[in-house]
Write a structure and sequence with these properties.
Elements (H helix, E strand, L loop, with lengths): L8 H8 L3 H10 L11
């Protein structure tokens, strides 16, 4: 498996076998911190 600096929500969802909503909930609950890219 290739290691990247960042993974998309979809990629992490597939790697962990969890839904995107679960990952979003974990982020809100502070179980992990998501990195957000701001596009200008």
């Amino acid at each position: 498996m290739v290691t990247k600096d960042y993974y998309s929500l979809n990629e992490v969802s597939q790697i962990l076998g969890k839904s995107k909503e679960t990952l979003r909930r974990w982020d809100r609950e502070g179980k992990f911190t998501a990195v957000r890219e701001i596009l200008i």
